[in-house]
Amino acid sequence: MAVYAIGDVQGCHDALQALLEKIRFDPACDRLWFVGDLVNRGPQSAAVLRFVMGLEAAVCVLGNHDLHLLAVAAGQARTRREDTLDDVLSAPDRDALLHWLRTRPLLHHDAALGYTLVHAGLLPSWDLGLARALAAEAEAALRGPAVDRLFAQMYGDQPDRWDPALAGWPRLRVIVNAFTRLRYCSADGRMDLAPKGVPGSQPPGLLPWFQVPGRKSRALRILFGHWSTLGLWNGDGAIGLDSGCLWGGRLSALRLDAEPEFFSVPCLQQQIPG
Questions:
Q1: Helix or strand or coil: residue 67?
Q2: 56-105: per-residue pLDDT in tens?
Q3: Between the CA of residue 54 and those of 27, 165, 263, what are the distances in Å?
Q4: Among 27, 62, 33, 65, which Cα is nearest to 270's?
Q5: Within-domain flag for 253
Q6: Do the domain assignments include residue 271?
Q7: Model pTM greater than 0.90?
Q8: What is the CATH number for 137?
Q9: Are 91 and 97 in contact (CB under 8 A)?
Q10: b vs e for 122-156, b when ≥16 Cβ sit within 10 Å of the residue's Cβ?
């Protein structure tokens, strides 16, 4: 059995199939982990959802584009000019696809393999135990009866730092933002969700989340996506897998059960950055 983690697919079904052919994926015995953002901006979001949903042993965490699709479908957010969600929203199996997506986790940890999977990152003050507890808290809200209110309150950049005293929607917003939108933060954990460029291009006082001194999750090997300008990254206890598939880059996978090895396939450009 082989286990592979795959970067942000974002509706690029053809690229995903090409990557699986390259790694000789066998659905009967191999397993796939996805870093989230299965949908949006690419042309085949519904096909990607159906494919991953049909895999018996796939693991997928939620990304910000996945949550945006769910919020739009719930009538709690408007589509954006760059969105390509209509094939899901008008699909005959729409309800099944959305239900499956809504029940995905925000964090997956496999002690045997020694990897932790998230979409964007972990705040510096979060160790694995706290991160798992906070992920479970947000997942319960996503699967609960008040999920539409969560989607209505989900958008926004404030509060911009974790405080255990937070409660209600602000608390959930910080949790969701950290798991699905984080790139840069200050040494004391204040998130700045605006910068998207490569390390070195950020405003003074900010660091990539995985380079903050004293980060409590440093002993983990964290797999993440969300950061296409960063590209493939392996350092500081973090492995970035978003190699810019959507923007004409590559879709990438990392083998997890053996000596780590990256695999990539080129992708047609679906949208122009900016």
A1: helix
A2: 889 999 999 999 999 999 999 999 999 999 999 999 999 999 999 999 99
A3: 10, 40, 23
A4: 65
A5: yes
A6: no
A7: yes
A8: 3.60.21.10
A9: yes
A10: bbbbbebebbbebbeebbebbeeeebeebbebbee
